[in-house]
């Protein structure tokens, strides 16, 4: 009887996983067929399958499959397993509806449903005050973003007489839509937890691990997906792209710097998500929509793995201490920078670089840090081997970005915005400067003060917390034990 009961408990989880695998296969096949020209985009009943929407839906199905497998094991002995399953399935379904919705009304309803179902997952353990506070702040910011999104969609219907995302390229006078692009940028920044409304994302780590994985690997990407879907509206709006570059650039600088000072694994991953979402939004502001789509896919898979395997990070840290890994020497870092510069210039020349320097600078910085650690560990005699491996990964990255241009062929405007390019380059150099200073000069007075300020998150979340509690007060449950509960 016990085994039979356990089997019945697992049936909903297994059924959900089977459905997600089938849907993932269908969405992926549709994406490949449309991207290769064997099929045209499909539109029916307010839904639409394009290479972008089908690919995003396939990714959500994959993430949902991994998360449900993990949750089935984590909640197998929980009394509220069925309740958690219902909430999790409702959230995944809402994300899929948003992904394939073409009609404005269905898209907005799916967007709101994602927020409401996620809220029920965040408060699954109502006795945790930090989780309730984070969900409360997220609830307020989500309502503001949904209102702005509704204003944008209604305005598009009234001004341009369009009611579907597929009709956006029909806009004949894009100059009138600048203020609508500003609204879209604001909605996307709030959905991606950009500064200063980022605090709730750092505190929802109190939620169950499957919820954190689904949030950081799928839901948080909806802001970038929104801008990719509405790219025909955003591309000609230079003012909105400037706003996106400034907000996302500052968020990337602060979040990447704060990540270096955190010890808690989940909190570091949360700050990393803020920085990665900021980088994706910066790519969109530059017009690299295919690169942003590739970033979205890679980040989702990486972050789902990171959260679901967070328990093994301590073991990995012990292995690194046992191997006695040290910081790369300055000479090795300089040699690695020269090699990375040569590889990036060669790749830009061979594959036909765009006008912007910022994306290549980001790739070059990442390659330089990796090469420095490899050269320092294996020695300079293996520099050629290490450079060949780096060249292989660089070619694979460029090839992936090129393949994703099949999903998003049209929106790049071709208009070079020098100011945005220089701004992003300065942000990237600032991140590198903070990183190197904290690594090589941590005991200096400036490094010590910088570490303290960054470890506190520059005290930015306090403003958002005060604002949300003044706007809508929250009564948290008492954490003091009751009289009868004391030993």
TrEMBL record:
The gene is dabB. This is Probable inorganic carbon transporter subunit DabB. Part of an energy-coupled inorganic carbon pump. The chain crosses the membrane at residues 45-67, 88-111, 140-160, 180-201, 213-235, 242-265, 277-298, 332-351, 357-375, 387-410, 416-440. InterPro entries: ND/Mrp_TM (IPR001750), NU5C-like (IPR003945), Transporter_DabB (IPR046396). One of its GO terms (cellular component) is endomembrane system. Forms a complex with DabA. GO terms for molecular function: NADH dehydrogenase (ubiquinone) activity; NADH dehydrogenase activity. The keyword Nucleotidyltransferase does not apply. It is found in: Cell membrane; Endomembrane system; Membrane. Belongs to the inorganic carbon transporter (TC 9.A.2) DabB family. NCBIfam families: PRK08168.1. The lineage of its organism: Bacteria, Pseudomonadati, Pseudomonadota, Gammaproteobacteria, Alteromonadales. It comes from Pseudidiomarina aquimaris.
């Amino acid at each position: 009887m016990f085994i039979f009961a356990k089997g019945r408990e697992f049936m909903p989880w297994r059924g959900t996983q089977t459905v997600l695998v089938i849907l993932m296969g269908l969405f992926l096949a549709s994406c490949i067929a449309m991207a290769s020209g064997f099929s045209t985009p499909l539109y029916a009943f307010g839904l639409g399958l394009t290479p972008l929407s089908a690919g995003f839906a396939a990714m959500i199905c994959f993430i949902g499959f991994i998360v449900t497998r993990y949750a089935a094991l984590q909640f197998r002995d929980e009394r509220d397993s069925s309740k958690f399953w219902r909430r999790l399935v409702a959230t995944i379904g809402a994300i899929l509806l948003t992904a394939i919705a073409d009609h404005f009304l269905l898209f907005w309803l799916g967007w709101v449903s994602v927020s409401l179902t996620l809220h029920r997952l965040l408060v699954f353990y109502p006795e945790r005050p930090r989780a309730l506070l984070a969900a409360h702040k997220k609830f307020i910011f989500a309502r503001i973003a949904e209102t702005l999104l509704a204003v944008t969609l209604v305005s598009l219907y009234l001004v341009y007489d369009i009611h579907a995302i597929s009709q956006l390229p029909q806009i004949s006078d894009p100059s009138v839509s600048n203020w609508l692009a500003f609204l879209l940028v604001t909605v996307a920044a709030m959905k991606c937890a950009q500064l200063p409304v980022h605090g709730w994302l750092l505190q929802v780590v109190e939620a169950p691990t499957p919820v954190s994985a689904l949030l950081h690997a799928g839901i948080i990407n909806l802001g970038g997906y929104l801008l990719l879907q509405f790219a025909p509206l955003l591309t000609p709006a230079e003012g909105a792209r400037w706003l996106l570059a400034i907000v996302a650039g500052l968020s990337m600088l602060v979040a990447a710097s704060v990540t270096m000072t955190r010890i808690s694994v989940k909190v570091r991953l949360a700050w990393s998500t803020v920085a990665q979402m900021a980088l994706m939004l910066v790519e969109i502001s530059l017009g690299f929509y295919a690169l942003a789509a590739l970033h979205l896919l890679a980040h989702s898979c990486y972050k789902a793995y990171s959260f679901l395997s967070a328990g093994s990070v301590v073991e990995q840290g012990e292995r690194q201490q046992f191997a006695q890994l040290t910081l790369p020497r300055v000479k090795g870092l300089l040699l690695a920078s020269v090699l990375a510069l040569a590889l990036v210039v060669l790749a830009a020349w061979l594959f036909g670089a765009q006008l912007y320097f910022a994306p290549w600078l980001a790739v070059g910085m990442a390659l330089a840090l990796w090469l420095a650690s490899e050269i320092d560990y294996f020695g300079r005699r293996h520099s050629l081997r290490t450079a060949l491996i780096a060249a292989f990964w660089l070619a694979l990255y460029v090839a992936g970005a090129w393949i994703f241009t099949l999903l998003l062929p049209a929106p790049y405007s071709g208009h070079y915005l020098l100011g945005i390019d220089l701004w992003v380059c300065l942000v990237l150099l600032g991140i590198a400067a903070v990183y190197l200073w904290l690594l090589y000069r941590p005991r200096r007075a400036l490094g010590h003060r910088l570490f303290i300020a960054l470890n506190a998150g520059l005290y930015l979340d306090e403003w958002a917390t005060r604002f949300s509690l003044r706007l809508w007060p929250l009564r948290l449950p008492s954490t003091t034990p009751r009289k009868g509960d004391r030993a």
